[in-house]
TrEMBL record, chain A:
Keywords, alphabetical: Ribonucleoprotein, Ribosomal protein
One of the record's GO cellular component terms: mitochondrial small ribosomal subunit
Organism name: Papilio xuthus (Asian swallowtail butterfly)
Xref: Pfam families: MRP-S22 (PF10245)
Highest taxon listed in the record's lineage: Eukaryota
Underlying gene: LOC106127019
GO molecular function: structural constituent of ribosome
Identification of the protein by name: 28S ribosomal protein S22, mitochondrial
TrEMBL record, chain B:
Keyword entries, A-Z: Mitochondrion, Ribonucleoprotein, Ribosomal protein
Subcellular location per the Swiss-Prot or TrEMBL entry: Mitochondrion
One Gene Ontology CC term in the entry: mitochondrial inner membrane
GO molecular function: structural constituent of ribosome
Organism: Papilio xuthus
Assigned protein family: Belongs to the bacterial ribosomal protein bS16 family.
UniProt cross-references to InterPro entries, sorted A to Z: Ribosomal_bS16 (IPR000307), Ribosomal_bS16_dom_sf (IPR023803)
Family annotation (PANTHER family): 30S RIBOSOMAL PROTEIN S16 (PTHR12919), SMALL RIBOSOMAL SUBUNIT PROTEIN BS16M (PTHR12919:SF20)
SUPFAM superfamilies given in the database record: Ribosomal protein S16
GO biological process: mitochondrial translation
Superkingdom: Eukaryota
Name of the protein in its database record: Small ribosomal subunit protein bS16m
Length: 368, 134
């Protein structure tokens, strides 16, 4: 081969390489933001008030919570059983189902990223040359939990030190030693995101990582941002990942798109709960006392899966209070004022019609 | 007769001398050791009193040698007056549980010496090669 040809081939190769890079960088517009700041999100996330708000915002729908799953642990699907039950038995079955749902919807914790471990126990330069491999020592004393297990390494240069998190994780086992390709290869993760397999990604991340790991927080952050960008909140509702999603968006002050979606779908009460969440996390809402009172009123109300058939006067009064609150929020705190105002306007018109209809119906029935 | 369990059968005489030693378990060309406590006068092929850990002398994919130690039971048997053989004492020394064993230091400086000598030989050979070429 002549030199000229060789150079030409090389240049073509480089050009192709460059093109590939350009494509991947266009797709990778999401920059993950993790919980690594001064403030620890853990105490806020675990506080009972925030937990109640997040669980309610999840909007659990039993047909989705108890849907059929392709689960490797349960190879045989049970045939459904039909029974005649008394009212009391039915109530106990309902409470059982509620408990199971609460377990299935338990949210993965949101905590700060862990700090690297560099605790050197001793340095012994006289051991240089003893061996050219590392020695890892694990204490296998019975009854010690994996996170408290003593794991140390002796390096070839004679340093004895505590192992870092990745080594600890490898030695403690319990999950795949090599990272799955979908997390290791960004292209593959992008493919899954494009296919909107959010729940699959988040479930797999829960299995593979600890919640305080940097990789976990990066993967979940990218997924949450993608959901937010595409307004695909519907796909994560009534799964255990909606709470952390709402928390993430509120924590990073970008929950206005979610608020807009709530207003557009006409779930005004949840919009108030989302404002309550913002107040609980950031405490930056001016009408805090009104808001908190309203949140306390809304929380015990049942979840509205679909539009109600008729509205009682109590409902109408509560909804009007919610609308007032949202108006104040849009005026003072919102980052998407015009869109949210438009959505609220649309909701108000619909709502007015519904109110008139239900009042008319009641009149026709002679109830009012 | 079935093999005794790797964790040991636990049968022993209270007053007899014990020793904590490496017991080879792998197969041909693949050494693997259990760290076990057994009677001093017993053979390595006989059932042990208790297994206290393991040692894999072949480096793994990440160039690491893995050692597992049940430190709680180790302390118990040391308290009972069990003897520790040199290879185990070396491992315990490297782990920071014991002071470093003198033999570890000996191995280290012997390895360093061999390396130094090899380097010198290599240099001499290179010098000889260059002088020949001239």
């Amino acid at each position: 081969m002549s030199l000229h040809k060789f150079i030409h081939k090389n240049v073509v190769l480089q050009y192709n390489h460059f093109q590939l890079l350009a494509i991947s960088s266009r797709k990778l517009s999401i920059i993950p933001s993790v919980y690594d700041g001064e403030q620890d999100p853990g105490p806020k996330f675990f506080s009972s008030g925030v937990q109640a708000l997040l669980k309610r915002l999840t909007r659990p729908d039993f047909s989705k919570v108890f849907r059929k799953r392709t689960n490797s642990n349960r190879p045989v699907l049970k045939t459904p059983e039909y029974k005649f039950l008394t009212n009391e038995e039915l109530q106990s079955e309902f409470s059982k189902a509620n408990k199971t749902a609460a377990r299935l919807l338990q949210m993965p914790p949101v905590v700060k990223v862990h700090q690297p471990i560099n605790e050197v126990l001793s340095k012994d330069p006289a051991l240089v040359g003893y061996d050219n491999t590392k020695y890892l020592f694990t204490d296998i004393t019975f009854g010690v939990p994996n996170e408290d297990r003593l794991i140390v390494e002796r390096d070839p240069d004679g340093t004895l030190q505590m192992c870092d998190h990745d080594t600890r994780k490898r030695l403690n086992q319990g999950r795949k030693v090599r990272e799955p390709m979908m997390f290791a290869d960004e292209e593959k993760l992008n493919g899954l995101l494009e296919a909107e397999k959010y729940e699959y990604i988040l479930d797999r991340a829960c299995i593979q990582y600890e919640p305080d790991e940097l990789s976990y927080q990066k993967v979940t952050s990218i997924t949450y941002q993608h959901v937010d960008m595409k307004t695909n909140y519907k796909l994560l509702r009534s799964t255990r990942h909606f709470g952390p999603l709402a928390f993430y968006l509120t924590w990073h002050q970008s929950m206005d798109n979610l608020m807009l979606e709530l207003l557009q779908t006409g779930v005004i009460r949840e919009a108030v709960l989302l404002m309550g969440l913002r107040q609980a996390i950031h405490e930056d809402i001016a009408f805090a006392s009104d808001l908190n009172a309203l949140v306390h009123q809304v929380l015990p109300m049942p979840v509205q899966a679909s539009k109600p058939d008729s509205l009682s006067e109590v409902d109408i009064q509560l909804d009007n209070q919610c609308i007032d609150c949202v108006v104040k929020y849009i005026a003072k705190n919102s980052a998407m004022k015009s869109q949210q105002e438009l959505a609220l306007q649309g909701f108000r018109e619909d709502y007015q019609q519904m109110v008139e209809l239900s009042r008319g119906l009641r009149k026709a029935h002679g109830e009012a | 007769m079935p093999l005794p369990p790797a964790s040991g059968t636990g049968k022993y005489f209270a007053r007899a001398a014990k020793s904590i030693r490496l017991i080879r378990q792998g197969c041909t060309n693949r050494p693997f050791f259990h760290i076990s406590v057994t009677h001093r006068r017993r053979l390595n092929s006989q059932p042990v009193i208790e297994q206290l850990g393991s040692y894999d002398p072949m480096p793994n994919f990440n160039n690491e040698k893995l050692v597992a130690l049940n430190l709680e039971r180790m302390k118990f048997w040391l308290g009972q007056g069990a003897h520790v053989t040199t290879p185990v004492a070396e491992l315990l020394g490297l782990s920071g549980f014991f002071p470093i064993h003198p033999r570890s230091y000996m191995t280290a400086w012997r390895n360093r010496r061999t390396e130094r000598e090899n380097l010198e030989k290599q240099k001499e050979a290179e010098a000889a090669a260059t002088s020949k070429a001239e």
